[in-house]
């Protein structure tokens, strides 16, 4: 059923049973990829069949976050995704020989994403996560077209200036006809060992984005959670061992596992 008249078929057309979440942010560096890798890992750890598409083509980081250098294998016309931390994962980084910048333009990016949903054999997935590039560029629009059932998850920091940019990324949903499943605040206040609370990036950004999107999209957009700043999240990301598995009881690990359970 995968091949329709010899042509590979989009496995995530309307009617597909997988829940699809495209993870977006207004700008880079807010922890979108780190959150996505951990949600995917936590969902797989809960026993779900999970796929992850790294569509952050210019800034791909998912293979490193999941600690894999594996290459996809080819079987006939199909590409089998490597499995890392229990997650089937595909990234443009896996098709490049060296760490060279990707100088692709819109149509090539669209084609790459199209191949990820047609030529990659995903099998029966419960959930597909897509790590979008920051902002509202070509790829976010292509992803919306190629994944017609996808809902957006918006990652923002608590900073009000960042929240305004993140809300605009969410408002792209108006044009693409997508729903926004929720907002995840990241880099929220951390509690230091002496009990002081350090809110490096201020507070309230997640709530601001959720309220603004609820107002502008005409459906309720919940704040799904608030992941604190946590050195373990960064260290485990650098080590390719997601914090939700490596330090599940840490502040960030606990909240990320809770958010995964609410999806
Ligand atoms: P994006 O995908 O939005 O560009 P990344 O996931 O690459 O962002 O995260 C940017 C940096 O911030 C990484 O070095 C990551 O380890 C770190 N980071 C992300 N979230 C947190 C957090 N809650 N606490 C500490 N460091 C974080």
Q: Can you tell me about this structure?
A:
This protein is α/β, with parallel strands linked by helices. The chain has a single domain (3-262), classed as 3-Layer(aba) Sandwich (Rossmann fold), CATH 3.40.50.300. The protein has helices spanning 32-45, 62-65, 106-118, 138-146, 160-176, 205-217, 231-239, 243-246, 251-262; strands at 3-4, 7-8, 19-25, 50-54, 73-75, 78-80, 83-84, 87-91, 127-131, 151-156, 179-188, 190-191, 197-198, 223-228. A hairpin with a 2-residue loop joins strand 5 and strand 6 (78-80). The radius of gyration is 18 Å and the shape is globular. The two termini are 29 Å apart. The relative contact order is 0.18. Adenosine-5'-diphosphate is lined by residues 25, 28-34, 61, 186-187, 227, 229-230, 233-234, 237, 252. Adenosine-5'-diphosphate binds next to helix 1, strand 11 and helix 7. Binds and transfers iron-sulfur (Fe-S) clusters to target apoproteins. Can hydrolyze ATP.
Number of helices: 9
> Strand content of the residues, in percent?
15-25%
How many structural domains are formed by the residues?
A: 1
Query: What's the arrangement of strands in the largest beta sheet?
Result: 7-8-4-9-3-10-11-14
Question: Brief overview, please?
Answer:
The protein has 263 residues and is α/β, with parallel strands linked by helices. The chain has helices at 32-45, 62-65, 106-118, 138-146, 160-176, 205-217, 231-239, 243-246, 251-262, and strands at residues 3-4, 7-8, 19-25, 50-54, 73-75, 78-80, 83-84, 87-91, 127-131, 151-156, 179-188, 190-191, 197-198, 223-228. The chain has one domain (3-262): P-loop containing nucleotide triphosphate hydrolases (Rossmann fold), CATH 3.40.50.
């Amino acid at each position: 059923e995968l091949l329709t008249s010899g042509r590979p078929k989009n496995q995530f057309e309307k009617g597909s049973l997988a829940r699809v979440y495209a993870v977006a942010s207004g700008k880079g560096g807010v922890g979108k990829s780190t959150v996505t890798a951990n949600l995917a890992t936590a969902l797989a750890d809960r026993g779900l069949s999970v796929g992850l598409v790294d569509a952050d083509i210019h800034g791909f980081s998912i293979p490193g976050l999941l600690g894999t250098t594996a290459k996809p294998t080819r079987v006939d016309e199909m590409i089998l995704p490597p499995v890392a931390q229990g997650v089937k994962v595909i990234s443009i980084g896996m098709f490049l020989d060296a760490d060279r910048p990707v100088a692709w333009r819109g149509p090539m990016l669209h084609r790459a994403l199209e191949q990820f949903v047609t030529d990659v054999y995903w099998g029966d997935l419960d959930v597909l996560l897509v790590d979008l590039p920051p902002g509202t560029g070509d790829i976010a629009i292509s992803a919306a077209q190629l994944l017609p059932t996808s809902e957006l998850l918006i990652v923002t920091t608590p900073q009000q200036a960042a929240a305004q940019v993140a809300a605009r990324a969410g408002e792209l949903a108006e044009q693409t006809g997508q729903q926004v499943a929720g907002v995840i605040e990241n880099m929220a206040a951390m509690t230091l060992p002496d009990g002081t609370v350090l809110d490096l990036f201020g507070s309230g950004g997640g709530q601001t984005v959720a309220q603004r999107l609820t107002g502008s999209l005409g459906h309720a957009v919940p704040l799904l959670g608030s992941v604190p700043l946590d050195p373990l999240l960064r260290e485990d990301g650098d080590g390719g061992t997601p914090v939700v598995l490596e330090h599940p009881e840490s502040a960030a690990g606990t909240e990320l596992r809770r958010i995964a359970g609410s999806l």
